[in-house]
UniProtKB/TrEMBL annotation:
Belongs to the transglycosylase Slt family. Residues 110-203 form the Transglycosylase SLT domain. InterPro entries: Lysozyme-like_dom_sf (IPR023346), Transglycosylase_SLT_dom_1 (IPR008258). It holds the Pfam family SLT. This is Lytic transglycosylase domain-containing protein.
Length: 309
């Protein structure tokens, strides 16, 4: 028995020794780590397309400053791969809702990419208090007919918020003259852009000296437009089934108070979480509705959620 134990111990030590030697050979030394890094991952300079435009208005890429700024945004957004893939996924879900509303107001389709850079197509909240996919301020929302209070905040209602964004963009275009300046004004305000144009005695966005955020704004929109329109050109690989889709819903009319949205949800075979996913503008677990206003609440069609009880 002792002989067998010694033999087993020897075999075990020999195996450990071999594993240790193998580990040393495969360890990430500076030399082989560098080789693996070079072979496994490559970063390329990008070729800025010869022609790019926003809403049909050409970008003056022959200007060296403009070319460098465009190059920056293409590089930043191409190599922020996780964010890029999420934009492709969300765009498939939300663009079909936004596109017909933009068309209804006669606004170029390119403005849907403005929402991409504003919020990443999420119901974000900015430090300044702007909210929703279109990042609408409380005052702007109310001026354009949105209900905004602790109980209901229609800045989170994608269709209604898109309509408000359209109205704001049209006003800016009428005041400033170009779609490019209207896009810049969505970030800096009509008054802010007008004042800078006058101060610097120019009439074009690309001739303005602006702060960091507004100065990058249109370039970021165009970069996202270019990348989302040509994914394979910028190294993004995905299948149609990898993208997100809108879940079909039907609308339920409500013109009374709702005391408990949990119970309300259960009558349609869903839970409160699912109700909120489809109606993020409902901000509390109940609806006051003292004025008996008519609300349309989206309910997912049967069979799209497998609920665990």
């Amino acid at each position: 028995m002792k002989i067998v134990q010694k033999a087993l111990a020897f075999v075990g030590l020999l195996s450990l020794g071999m594993l240790f030697i193998y580990a040393l050979q495969d360890a990430p030394t500076d030399e082989n780590f560098e080789k693996k890094l070079i072979n496994d991952y490559n970063v390329y300079a990008l070729q800025v397309p010869e022609y790019l435009d926003f809403a049909g208005e050409p970008i003056p890429l022959k200007d060296p400053d403009i070319l460098e700024r465009m190059d920056r945004e293409l590089l930043v957004n191409t190599y922020w791969q996780s964010n890029g893939l999420l934009m492709f996924k969300r765009a498939k879900k939300y663009f079909p809702i936004m596109e017909p509303i933009l068309e209804k107001y006669g606004i170029p389709d390119d403005f849907k990419y403005l929402a991409v850079i504003e919020s990443g197509l999420t119901n974000a909240t900015s430090p300044a208090g702007a909210r929703g996919v279109w990042q609408i301020m409380r005052s702007t929302g109310r001026e354009n007919g949105l209900e905004i209070n602790d109980n209901v905040d229609e800045r989170y209602h994608l269709e209604k918020a898109t309509e408000v964004a359209c109205k704001y963009i049209l006003e800016a275009k009428d005041q400033l003259g170009t779609w490019t300046l209207a896009a810049a004004a969505y970030n800096a305000g009509n008054t802010g852009v007008s004042r800078r144009l006058k101060e610097q005695n120019v009439s074009n966005y690309y001739d303005l000296l602006l702060g960091e955020e507004t100065g990058r704004y249109v370039f970021r929109i165009v970069a996202l437009k270019e990348i989302i329109t040509h994914p394979s050109k910028y190294g993004f690989n995905f299948r149609e089934k990898d993208l997100y889709n809108q879940i079909p819903t039907f609308k339920v009319q409500v013109d009374t108070a709702v005391t408990d949205f949990t119970k309300f949800s259960e009558t349609f075979g869903i839970n409160y979480k699912i109700l909120k996913i489809h109606n993020p503008w409902l901000r509390e677990g109940h609806l006051n509705n003292k004025s008996r206003k008519l609300y349309l609440i989206d309910i997912p069609e049967e069979g799209y959620y497998n609920l665990v009880n």
